[in-house]
Every structure is written in C-alpha cells, then in structure tokens.
Amino acid sequence: MIVKIKKVNVWSLARMLVFLFFILTFIDGIIKSIQVLIDATLLVSFGFDSLGQSILSFLVIGPLVVAVVGFFIGLIGGLFYNIIAMWLGGISLDVQEHKKESKK
Asked: How many CB atoms lie within 10 A of CB 92?
C-alpha cells in the first residue's frame, strides 16, 4: 500500500525533535564528561576553570540549548514541508499492514 504524507503536524514534529535532540545531546554530554575525567587537558582547551563547570555544561546546559534549537528546527522544518508538499504532493511511502497472529 502506498500512502502520502501531505501535511505534517508542526507542533508534533517540534515536540518530537525537542525530545530527540535533548536525549542525544545528553548522551553526548555523558561521553564528553567521561573524556574530561580521563584527560584533564580538555579543561584547558574548553576554557573551564573547574571540572564541575565542564560537566554541568555538558550534561545540563548543552542538552537544554540543543533541545530549544531542535524545537525551532522542527517548527520551521514542518512549516517548510507543509508549504513544499502543497506544490509537490508530499512524500510517498510504501507501507505494509502487519497483522499480529493470536496465540491459541
């Protein structure tokens, strides 16, 4: 079965990207924090005075900033998609209905 995405709910897309961007940046922050703990020279290159500041920025500030940016990317991207989909007809997807077999 082929279906077309003719319109995207902009707020739904923006909310989804906030969550995805926050989680991905948080995971990235964990990795960066481990790097900082292992290699103290990163503190100098990032210009932080203490270990606590760098971990705070990697785990709290970074994910929040990226989540806000993700919201606006979703909002603007969804609006652009809806405008372009009016002209081009949207994205065609080939989907298959999956029926779950009941166990007896």
From this structure: 9
Residue 104's pLDDT band (boundaries 50, 70, 90)? low
Task: Name the E strands within 8-96.
Answer: 91-94
User: What is the Cα–Cα distance from 18 to 12, expressed in whole angstroms?
Assistant: 10
Domain boundaries, the chain: 2-94
> What is the C-alpha separation between 58 and 26, in angstroms, rounded?
7
Paired sense of beta strands 91-94 and 2-5, if any:
antiparallel
pLDDT of residue 46: 62
Distance CA(37)–CA(55), nearest Å, equals: 9
The predicted pLDDT at position 52 comes to 62
